[in-house]
Structure formats: structure tokens, C-alpha cells
Amino acid sequence: MEIGFIATDKAPGAIGPYSQAVQAGNMLFTSGQIPLSSEGNVIDGSIEEQTHQVFRNLQAVLAEAGFTFHHVVKATVFITNMDEFSKVNEIYADYFGDHRPSRSTVQVARLPRDVGIEIELIAVK
């Protein structure tokens, strides 16, 4: 199986020794995206603003590999405050529309750069 490393300048670069995504055959595994601009600046603000930025980043990484949200089969959402889950869920639903990948959501004590949300995806063509 051929493995390819995905990188786009339309999403923040990796802030460590990893790739934005790895494609293995017809599968794509994104690294967790946090609310950073493509220049690597933290998007301060509400959980809604942070979540939209995370989805813009994920969309850019998916597109670089020729995938869309409709190819996603699994999403993992990490949030620091479960009380904000309903806000995240509304935005999540907007990006996925009628497509319903499996999902796990976990409250964590802390995320990189002290942001409120991180999401990673698995997609299949």
C-alpha cells in the first residue's frame, strides 16, 4: 500500500513532527486540527469561532488530498468544556449536512496552545 503525506498552506502547518494528514490507499487520516489561522496564529474567541476555524482547516486538508466532508467516516472531537458541546454540535451539523459519519466526543483537561477544541477525521474514497 502506498502512503502519502499531505500538506497545504491553506491550513496551519504541523507544529511538531507530524503531517497534516496521511493518505494510505483510499483512506485519509487527518491530524487533529485546532483553531489556528493558516499562518499559525491562535484564533481567540468563542467556541463557535474556534470551531468554524477548525472546520476551515479540515476542509483545506481534505481538499488538498481530493476529499470532502462527504468522504469522512469517523470524526473525533476533543473539547475542554462539555457545556459547550451543543454549540459545537450545531456547527458540526452545518459542515456535514445530511452526511452522518461516526463520531466520538471527549472532554479533555487541556489542548495544545490552550484552545477549546480539536477535531481529527478519517475519510475513505
What does this structure look like?
- The protein is an alpha+beta fold and 125 residues long.
- The protein has one domain: RutC-like (60s Ribosomal Protein L30, Chain: A, 2-Layer Sandwich), CATH 3.30.1330.
- The protein has 2 helices and 6 strands.
- It has a 6-stranded mixed beta sheet with strand order 1-2-3-6-4-5, with helices on one face.
- Strand 2 and strand 3 form a beta hairpin.
- Helix 1 packs parallel to helix 2.
- The two termini are 15 Å apart.
- The model has no long low-confidence stretch (mean pLDDT 97).
- Secondary-structure element series: EEEHEHEE
Instruction: Output the CATH homologous superfamily.
Output: RutC-like
**What is the averaged pLDDT score?**
97
Q: What's the level 1 CATH class?
A: Alpha Beta
Molecular shape:
globular
Under CATH, the topology is which? Answer: 60s Ribosomal Protein L30, Chain: A
The N- to C-terminal Cα distance equals 15 Å
Report the CATH architecture: 2-Layer Sandwich
The gist of it:
This protein has helices at 47-64, 85-96; strands spanning 3-6, 21-24, 27-30, 72-79, 102-107, 117-124. With 125 residues, it is of the alpha+beta class.
Task: Record keyword descriptors for this entry.
125 residues; six-stranded mixed beta sheet; 2 helices; single chain; alpha+beta
Show the helix and strand layout.
Layout: E1 3-6, E2 21-24, E3 27-30, H1 47-64, E4 72-79, H2 85-96, E5 102-107, E6 117-124
Parallel strand pairs: 4-5
Antiparallel strand pairs: 1-2, 2-3, 3-6, 4-6
